Amino acid sequence: MTTEDTTSNVPSKRGSSALRMGPRKKASTSDPLISHGQHFGRTVFALCNYPSLLTNGILRLEQMEETPLEDFSADERREHRVFEQLLDSYPGLLERLKNGSEEEILHVGELVRRSGAAGARGDDMKTLKSAVLDWISPKGDAIQPHLHRNSKIDRGFNHELTGSLLCPAGLDWNDPETKENLRSGEMLVCGDQWPIFLYTQYTYDPDDPWCGLLRSRLLAYKHVFTSPSSVEKEPKATRSGNARLHGMNCVTIASISYIATQVRFALSSSSVFSRTDTTTDSETFYHSLLDLLEDPEEYKEVDELLTWWNRQVFPTPSAAKRPVSANSALSKIRQKHLAVKQTSNLDVVSS
């Protein structure tokens, strides 16, 4: 279940950032944009005001005829990159927006947001709420005290197991005072205080905070993007997963942040995903991960992280990067093509 603000508004001029969750309004008709919105929310940007994103983007395109993008603020440049990615994902969308009225832009934005991105987020929450309990259960044993699959009130810091996983990295859950402060709410956990479950084997090294970050087995990427049955083994689902349906063959920065946000929410005691929920602070959490992963200064670590994830989720495409076996038919074909190309280049130069 998800909730957002109860009013709707499309800005008439560039103003507040669209890369924040927007107001609530029900979409009324079916449109291919819904499917694109579902995938876009999972892989490019999950929590933003899509009507504002579209309106700001169209206005910014007009302003860029006289003002280069570099002269806009960092937030506006980031917002425009997201806008361009949305346009690229759906051919013909730009013309539809330019030729449409403000009502049409609102309608398109609501299709992408409410029925698309928000709908996909809600569907994933429903399945992860139950599935996460299977992943954290002790091998060959049951969770004690028992955790209900259909209720989250006893999760979060209220339970020993989920509390230990949600405990911010750098804090000691086994310290009685820390545990009590987290449970009572005296110690407020902000979204940018990342939980220990994000790390490999739930181990955090303060001297090397990148070590193991976002490589936890709890980040069940395959559950959402290939099929729930492929989390621990090869997929057996008869229907294609979300990745195949949308031609996705590599992991994105935003999709890692999305999965981390979903699992964190599934472990929490909150039953409603809301931008105003200061307990989970999911929006800040999601944006804080994106801020790190999009930081040019972190390029080396991020590249290694994406390579690691691609090997876990999409191992087949990486095979194309392997060196071709010597004396194979493929190597002979490529050698022949290279020789023909080199001969053609020499002919052009000599002429």
What does this protein look like?
The chain is mainly alpha-helical. Helix content is 50%, strand content 1%. The longest helix is centred in the middle third of the chain and has 35 residues, at 102-136.
Major sheet size, sense and barrel closure: 2 strands, parallel
Work out the oligomeric state of the chains in this entry. Answer: single chain
How much strand content do the residues show?
Answer: under 5%
Uncertain segments of ≥5 residues (pLDDT<50)?
A: 1-14, 23-29, 235-240
Counting DSSP H or I runs of 4 or more residues, the number of helices is 14
Strand order of the largest sheet: 1-2
Fold topology:
Layout: E1 2-3, H1 32-43, H2 50-63, H3 74-89, H4 93-99, H5 102-136, H6 160-166, H7 176-184, H8 221-225, H9 242-245, H10 253-267, E2 273-274, H11 282-293, H12 299-313, H13 315-318, H14 329-350
Parallel strand pairs: 1-2
Helix pairs in contact: 1-5, 2-3, 2-5, 5-10, 10-11
In short:
The chain is an all-alpha fold. Helix content is 50%, strand content 1%.
Features:
single chain, 351 residues, mainly alpha, two-stranded parallel ribbon, 14 helices, 2 strands, globular, disordered N terminus
